[in-house]
Fold this protein.
Amino acid sequence: MSDTGTRPFCGPATEQQWIRPRIARITHVDLAVSIDLERQRIEGTVEHRCEFHDRRSGRILELDQHDLEIRSVEIDGRPAAFTTADNRLAIPIADALATASVRVSFIADHPAKGMYFIPADPSRAQVAMCWTQGAMEDHSHWFPCFDSPNNLSTWRIGVRHRSSLIAVANGVKEPATAPVDGWTTSVYVQDRPHVVYLVNVVVGDFAEVRDDSGPVPIAHYVPRGREAEGAAMFRATGFAIRWLSDYIGLAFPWPRYGHVVVHKFMWGGMENATLTTITDRVLMDAQVQAREDIDCDSLVIHELVHQWYGDLLTMKGWSDIWLNESFATYLEARCAAAWRAQGDSSREADELALLLWIDRRAYLDEDSGRYRRALVTNRYEDAYELFDRVAYEKGCLVLHQLCRRLGEERFRAALTLYTSRHAHDLVETADFRQALEDATGEPLDWYFDQWVHRAGHPRIKARWRHDPVRGALVVDLEQTHASAKPASEQHVLTHRLAIEVVWPVTGSRDLERRRIELVRAVDTLVLPCPAAPAWVALDPDGDLLAEWDEDADATQLCARLQDHRLGADARARAAVA
């Protein structure tokens, strides 16, 4: 679907991107590397434990590699043949093998992506370090791997590094080896599976900041000398772990958690399993937070949500990225509102309304100014293109709308079922819909067709008048994005919407509330109302992802703006109408 003035997300010749096939399930990866910061060089071995899907002849195991020196390959301890071409390492697999350990020895020299080396620069308060960034598919620039999201593995990561530095990685740290000639080996074991792009390896001059606020061990790693700022910037972590565990209905799924703050990071944060990477641009101490009224709490919470949605459950292909980012954006808003309110339910509702208002504006600005696309699409040139306002803000609003339609209790029951059913697994949009239907008994095929697989959103023209003869409020509603089309197309474009209509009862402190289901492009509601109300509000809590055209006069809008019986969204909309 496209409207006049909106541009498509991609051209008609853009090819569909399908989930990458694989001949084996890689169940465990043992990565052992020596990292030299001065030479910007990684040398080591990686062992993939493979379970092959069948025993047909001519099988080739393909691992990704970019500009690596492949020194040798072994299968179950025996030298094996291999070739490299088109950024792939191809390894023939004997017909009889059902399982195998494939060990590759390699060198990465000045990798272009995946691992980044940052030299010390005291003038910029910059310490020496290297850090990794796997998403989307960049780890294969520094070690050979199946660099696609449709495989889950457990991990053992051993890092040999200068003894004066700290190495951190996913999972739980084993006792360090004694230094030898100024070098130490740090080993981390991740016995709960996750996809390859969530691997995190960082070496540098860091200080550890312990955090006792959570239900699991928490430690943050910051550039040495910035410890006070680390303690302040991650202040919401313990609260968020507890709040999210309660809301989702599933305890924090990893044995520990923490952050590592790095220089020159390209994004705000990255939700690597057990160890989130955060940019040093948000390092701040408590005095700065208080003086400037600024914090990075929402960023911290967003990345923490991903420990469930993105890490515990990971989309099978990039086309379903909303299952990561929309969930993180929505639960970020819910948790951040609770964190700010600190138990004040009225303030929490207002905080949530503000955050969702900001999300709505961000999505609508992109939709009107850049392009329009469906939440789920496999037509794109590069997966990076999918990380937009649709994947984040629109999907967040689609989830909030669904929560309001189903009700909080049913929505949370479905969320718990979806999360527990697919823990440590790969998911698609159909899995979420199935969990919703199983938990609520309500078919939602129409909802997913309308909001997930269709681009855009409704634009609603609303006009109301009071009919004193009939003692009725007459509300004319028109979905203008559909009504402007030929009659043969309107049924395809018309949205099915649950809309609440609210007005003050004349001579009373009560508000009259009516909930209606709008299923036609053009409709008229006739609602009993003996006296003309001072104002009328449609969708007063901002539940719908829609653009409104309301032609109320200034007196009505001012009355609505000043009536604190209404929530923040209805009053804000009156202010900007």
Remarks:
- The first helix runs from residue 227 to 233.
- The domain at 459-576 is CATH 2.60.40.1840 (Immunoglobulin-like).
